[in-house]
């Protein structure tokens, strides 16, 4: 380091260069086949002691942390990553490491970490390198393990891959330990009492020869940095195991929830104020992270309390330890606080007024709600509709017409016939790779627009029945827009199976006649695309098939639709903070968008139903109505709910959240009429049917043949 005002001498420069050269030469020699094998032989021995493993972990930890070398770049590291026996032994050492307390009792170091209890420098120096190495190596090995190898295959009777160091039951226990360790490190990062925290560290460091307060401060920061680095690799591993459990559950129900965490939406009110809402974007644990406030121990007070800092770290890094319903409430409170700033509380605040022709809903909305015309889509939108004849439709938009309009607009924009989205064989939506061929260079503007529309639906707490492919939702939530091969099954299960077949094919791969190309058949036109330069002249062989498999998956999942997804994500982020959405995994985000596929609770619906036009809860017609609906199947109940509200699923937090409130209005005494609905008002117009059979037949006929939403 050069001190300002003091010029370094040529001797100092030469000294620095020589140290760098010596370091590079040592790393180079260490990476030689001969040296790597010598080190590996030390740990392969049955008699290998804890000291040998600790020494090996220290070497690897230094390579990764100080020299910033990645696992695939170092022969020693990737050799260890794919050795199941080594990883098992490493985990055994981590769980069996203990220390003596002042009371004389023995406690496991892993338990101290999980509690968030400070430990001596000697103890942290024993466990951090081992824990860091284990998490890094196991994470790297999991990248190469496909789901069929991770889980085994019941149909074919195939066991887990030999690459898997742990059985599924062992992974359940291991993942719980990793989860608790992460939560403990968050406590270490945000100690309850800064002064006590500082004093503990000062005593610890002075005991190992550190003298001045400045030196103590530097050692504290270095120690904290080591915990941050460890936190990053453990959370990465936890999320990888969690991702497998999302795609195919193997952990028991409630496994990821922590009893140690008590985050409630009504208790974290400080997170909803404007200054705190902004830190969700910048305060990510293990990046620049919330830990920075504790690196300068006791110097600058954080914007949030210790408790709020911990809660924010958990919600941004380990949200799955909090109940889903509680996270939904937190999300809605964040949105509500943001909305109050933008829209205000009054009905006549500044907003967006648009006139839309019913027969040109998408075209008119794309023009009038473009970012150039309406840069802030968070504002309240009032819609004036013109019918197919160009005449005004009845009604003043108090919010209901807009919601119905947005629902129809989303259905139109995401309809595969519109050309921007395609459906998988399971009828799940993802961006159409051929969209550019349909609309030209402006195709990304349409995805930005559609992203804003979905964001607006979330912002307005509207459920819309748009079933998205899991891989696409993962791309929206990821800090990188790319996803790995493990997601290919949600796009094209057949291609995924074919690639797995190729990976394990025992014959001569070259005889299959493959090369490094893929063929697109868009709009009936075949187009050959090279996966790498000169790909059409590179045959797929046993030696290069893994590279081919990953290039095919990367092309289909990422490259082919990268501009589509980036534009969509930018549009979504224009309305809703992506950090708030990252409290949810891809399956939970689908529930946030479309609601949960759960039985409809009639007691809850009754409790939050209004009546008008002379009807009351005790009116004979209303009593007959509820008796008939109670006899409906769940499918019929869903159709009734869709008929009245345009969504077949109940609100996430119950019918108290439905806006406008579900209402049954007197539809007159003409018994020949059918029930009708104004979905913009969540209003069912029910004629005075007193006979149960008549009520049932009329309701079923109406909900089976429901039509559009023009106001009557």
TrEMBL record:
SMART domains: HECTc. The keyword Ubl conjugation applies. GO terms for molecular function: ubiquitin protein ligase activity. SUPFAM superfamilies: Hect, E3 ligase catalytic domain (SSF56204). Keywords: Isopeptide bond, Transferase, Ubl conjugation, Ubl conjugation pathway. This is Ubiquitin-protein ligase E3C. Its EC number is 2.3.2.26. The keyword Ubl conjugation applies. Belongs to the UBE3C family. The active site is at 680 (glycyl thioester intermediate). It comes from the Eukaryota. It holds the Pfam family HECT. GO terms for biological process: protein polyubiquitination; ubiquitin-dependent protein catabolic process. It catalyses: S-ubiquitinyl-[E2 ubiquitin-conjugating enzyme]-L-cysteine + [acceptor protein]-L-lysine = [E2 ubiquitin-conjugating enzyme]-L-cysteine + N(6)-ubiquitinyl-[acceptor protein]-L-lysine.
């Amino acid at each position: 380091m050069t001190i300002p005002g003091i010029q370094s001498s040529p001797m100092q420069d030469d000294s620095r260069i020589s140290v760098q050269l010596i370091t590079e030469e040592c790393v180079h020699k260490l990476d030689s086949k001969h040296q790597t094998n010598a080190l590996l032989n030390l740990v392969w021995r049955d008699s290998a002691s804890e000291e040998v493993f600790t020494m090996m972990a220290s070497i690897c930890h230094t390579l990764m942390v100080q020299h910033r070398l990645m696992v695939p770049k170092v022969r020693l590291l990737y050799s260890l990553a794919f050795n199941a026996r080594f990883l098992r032994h490493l985990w055994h050492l981590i769980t069996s490491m203990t220390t003596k307390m002042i009371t004389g009792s023995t406690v496991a170091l892993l338990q101290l970490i999980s509690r968030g209890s400070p430990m001596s420098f000697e103890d942290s120096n024993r466990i951090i390198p081992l824990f860091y190495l284990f998490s890094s190596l196991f994470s790297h090995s999991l990248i190469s393990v496909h789901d069929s190898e991770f889980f085994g295959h019941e149909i074919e009777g195939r066991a887990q891959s030999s690459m898997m160091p742990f059985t599924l039951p062992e992974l359940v226990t291991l993942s719980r330990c990793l989860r608790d360790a992460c939560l403990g490190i968050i406590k270490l990062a945000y100690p309850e009492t800064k002064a006590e925290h500082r004093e503990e560290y000062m005593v610890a460091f002075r005991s190992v020869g550190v003298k001045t307060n400045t030196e103590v401060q530097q050692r504290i920061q270095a120690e904290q940095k080591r915990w941050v680095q460890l936190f990053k690799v453990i959370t990465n591993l936890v999320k990888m195991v969690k991702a497998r459990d999302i795609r195919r559950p193997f952990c028991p129900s409630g496994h990821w929830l922590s009893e140690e965490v008590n985050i409630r939406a009504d208790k974290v009110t400080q997170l909803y104020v404007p200054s705190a809402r902004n830190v969700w974007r910048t305060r990510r644990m293990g990046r620049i992270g919330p830990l920075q406030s504790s690196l300068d121990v006791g110097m600058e007070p954080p914007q949030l309390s210790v408790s709020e800092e911990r809660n924010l770290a958990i919600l941004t890094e380990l949200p799955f330890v909090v109940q889903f319903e509680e996270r939904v409430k937190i999300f809605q409170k964040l949105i509500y606080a943001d909305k109050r700033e933008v829209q205000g509380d009054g009905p006549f605040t500044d907003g967006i007024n648009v006139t839309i022709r019913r027969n040109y809903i998408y075209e008119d909305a794309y023009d009038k709600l473009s970012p150039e015309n309406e840069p802030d889509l968070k504002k309240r939108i009032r819609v004036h509709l013109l019918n197919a004849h160009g005449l005004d439709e009845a009604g003043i938009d108090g919010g209901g017409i807009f919601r119905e309009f947005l629902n129809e607009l989303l259905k139109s924009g995401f309809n595969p016939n519109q050309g921007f989205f395609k459906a998988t064989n399971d009828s799940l939506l993802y961006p159409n790779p051929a969209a550019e061929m349909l609309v030209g260079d402006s195709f990304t503007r349409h995805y930005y627009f559609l992203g804003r529309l979905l964001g607006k639906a979330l912002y307005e707490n509207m459920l819309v029945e748009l079933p998205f492919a899991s891989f696409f939702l993962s791309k929206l939530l990821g800090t990188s827009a790319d996803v790995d091969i493990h997601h290919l099954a949600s796009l094209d299960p057949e291609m995924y199976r074919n690639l797995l077949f190729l990976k394990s094919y025992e014959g001569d791969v070259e005889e299959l006649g493959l090369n490094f190309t893929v063929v697109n058949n868009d709009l009936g036109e075949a187009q050959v695309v090279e996966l790498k330069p000169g790909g059409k002249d590179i045959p797929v062989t046993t030696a290069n098939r893994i590279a081919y498999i990953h290039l095919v998956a990367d092309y289909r999942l990422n490259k082919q639709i990268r501009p589509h997804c980036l534009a969509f994500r930018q549009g979504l982020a224009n309305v809703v903070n992506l950090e708030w959405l990252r409290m949810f995994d891809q399956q939970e985000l689908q529930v946030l968008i479309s609601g949960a596929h759960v039985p409809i609770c009639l007691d809850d619906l009754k409790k939050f139903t209004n009546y008008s036009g002379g009807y009351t809860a005790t009116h004979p017609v209303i009593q007959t109505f509820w008796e008939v609906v109670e006899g409906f199947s769940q499918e019929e109940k869903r159709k009734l709910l869709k008929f009245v509200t345009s969504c077949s699923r109940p609100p996430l937090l119950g019918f108290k959240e439905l806006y406008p409130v579900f209402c049954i209005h007197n539809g007159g005494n003409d018994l020949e009429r059918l029930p009708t609905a104004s979905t913009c008002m969540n209003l069912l117009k029910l004629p005075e049917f007193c006979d149960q059979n008549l009520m049932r037949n009329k309701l079923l006929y109406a909900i089976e043949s429901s039509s559009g939403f023009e106001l009557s």
